[in-house]
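Model: You mentioned two targets. I'll fold them one after the other.
Researcher: Yes, keep them separate.
Model: Target one:
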Amino acid sequence: MNIFFGPYLWQAEADESWLYWEIWYEPFGIALHILGLVVLSLSFFPVLSISLYIPFVLLGCLWTMVYGTWKAADMRESGWGVELGPRKPWQ
């Protein structure tokens, strides 16, 4: 059974569950987005605040994409099938 839990997709079988796909969200990337929102909310000049906010969004997206790609590759190398969960003996 697949269960969405926030940004994570969990697979639960019988009495154990484990994380097998971590896609976009990751704490540092989320922190960059929040920091960008804080800069946006504290600025009195809309054009300036938007121009300051965009780099934070881009950095947050870039970080989470790089982290997600690295995590998926790491899972594949360690024997986890990214789309299917753990590999079965017959695969």
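Model: Target two:
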Amino acid sequence: MVTAAVAVCISVLVTPLSAQALVRPSTIDWISQGIAAPLGSTLLGAAPSRTRLDLRVVLEPKNSGALAQFINDVSTPGNPLYRHFLSPAEFAQRFGATPSAIALVRSELRSTGLTVSAVSPNNLVLRVTGSATQVAATFHTKLQRYRDISGEIATVATSRIGLASPIARYVAGISGL
């Protein structure tokens, strides 16, 4: 359980900011440039409006400096905290997003028509679903579909991604775009 928490923490620290824009274009904070087409892939066109997307909104941890230190401590042989992992509840209490940050992000995402169905036990990840139209509008991005070299089809944000300023500061990244 701690390994998963540490993995999420590490992904939060290395995930580029990539989601911020909801209601008014003048209040958008851009958090990612989007991605280039996957190597060897074929563009199929715009994502159909009703395509359902399942995303993860990764929240900023509270006290990220202490979190980075904790990750170092539990990973360093000889450190008294080496391999002394936290339960998800302990992690949430020490490093997870605050209840008010979770409530604000959840409320803003829901106000755009997205469904926020779950919060991870460590309070850092929200499961969010919605149509391609809702996702593109919420995150102020362009969604394209590609077929990769193995034949898999993926929906990809090909332009920068943004969120409304009131919640942008609480979002570290978006997984699934």
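Researcher: Noted. Anything on target two?
Model: The chain has one domain: 17-61+97-175.
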